[in-house]
Each structure stands twice: as structure tokens, then as C-alpha cells.
Fold this protein.
Amino acid sequence: MTATTIATPASAAASLSQRRTEPAIALSATAEPLWVRVLLVTLAFAFLTLFLFVPLVAVFAEALKKGWQVYLQAIIDPDALSAIRLTLIAAGISVPLNLVFGVAAAWTIAKFEFRGKSVLLTLIDLPFSVSPVISGLIYVLLFGAQGWFGGWLREHDIKILFAVPGIVLATIFVTFPFIARELIPLMQAQGSEEEEAALVLGASGWQTFWRVTLPNIKWGLLYGVILCNARAMGEFGAVSVVSGHIRGETNTMPLQVEILYNEYNFTAAFAVASLLTLLALLTLALKSIVEWRTDESRRQAPQE
């Protein structure tokens, strides 16, 4: 014979009461007292004020300390304009190349299984683990006068180091993980069902990419481009090694700020730094817009 348990009204009422109190207990376990929440928020704002807002205000205060005329003169100085132009050139070349590489790498890793996949992922993460100064030294060992290709480059009158090509190569190296690393988890989460359905219906590879894959990853792609561009414009370590610090020729904006500051020309240094700060704020605004748009698209996806 098997024993059966007969629920009495008292035990049923006790079980129902226990179930009703469980959510309340769970809620109370995660709800901190008011003074704790106020303390945490105050500490967070104090930290942001000390390490973010105060330096931000200090940059513009020092840049405008001697008035708008001095500020504008520092911006339109030929060396400053050359640094701005070179920074835009380096970012304008490296970001599109990293865009192509990032999409291709993410497509390959997310959609296919092959030998060496983990090795490719490791190589993509390499710039995150290697100091930018070390990456700059690698280019010196490759293209320097005593480097592996130095003799051949000298014979053919090709200049890589202490010129624009070296700066572009260093910028590409330190920024190529950003777009790929943003797209890989996104494309892995989306899977390949929609692409397979498009191919079954007769779409070509390019049609599948332009009409299925790209619309699904457009916000993640834009987010990666924004991060890549921000790093390209603000890169210092690797570019400093390969540039040679030639005024008016191989100085980017971060290098120009360093030179002016070391010369005690603080107003001009902070004036150029304020341009980088404005670019950072613009990047932050675009990043917030993309994040908001991405969250909106994710919320609307189940409804559609």
C-alpha cells in the first residue's frame, strides 16, 4: 500500500500564505533602505564629479582663460591645423578598412565552423592585450632603417616610419578589434536561419547580405564604428612611436597637445585638447543614441 497525504484546510491555507509572502520576501531582500540608496547615489555622483566633470570643465576653462581670440589663434595655428588634418586622415582611412575587416571577420566566425576559429578570435583580441607602445615598436622592427624590410624600403625610396603610412598602419592595428568584437556576439545571437531562408528562396550571397544580414546588424555596426573612430582619433602610444614627432608633418592632435604642454604653452595645449574633448562628447552622444535605438529595436522585435 502507498501512503497518501491528505491536505487539510489548515495546511492548504498555510501553503497559500507562504506562496503569497515569498515575492514580498524576495522583494525586501533586494530593496535597500533609503539611506543606503542615497549614500550610493551620492558616492557615484561625487566620483563622477571629481574624476569626470571637474577635468572636463578644467579643459575648457584653461583653453578660454586668455579669451576667445587667443583660443582661436591656437586652433588656426598651422601646426595645429596640420595635426587636425592628419588625425582626420588617419581616422578616415583606418575606420573604413576596419569596417570591412570587422564585418568579414564577424560573418566568418558567427556563420561558419572551421579549424583555427579560436586562433582567429585570439588574433582579433591581440591589440587589447598588447600595449600600444609595443605595437608601435613592432612597426619599427619591421619598417625601420635596421628592420626586416628597412633595406628594401630604402632602395625603393618608400617611407613608412615617420610618415603618414606608419601612422595609418599603427592606427589600424590598435583599432581593428572594435567593430569585429561588437558584431561577433550580435551575429551569433541572431543565428543564420534568416540567411538560409533567403538562399533557399533564390537570393544570391550579396542579396542576402544587403537585404537580410546588414539590416539586422546596422545598429551594432554603427556602434562599433563610433567606438573605432573615437579610438583612432585619440590614439597616442602607438602613433607616438612611429610618428617621429615632426611638427607640421607627423603630429596628430594628441601628440600636438603633448608638445605644446611640454613647451609650457598651456593655453594652446588646452585649446587643441578641447577639440578632442568635443569629439569625445560628440562620440558619447552618438553612442547613447545608438544604444537607445538598439534597445528600442530589440523591444519591438518580439512584437513584430
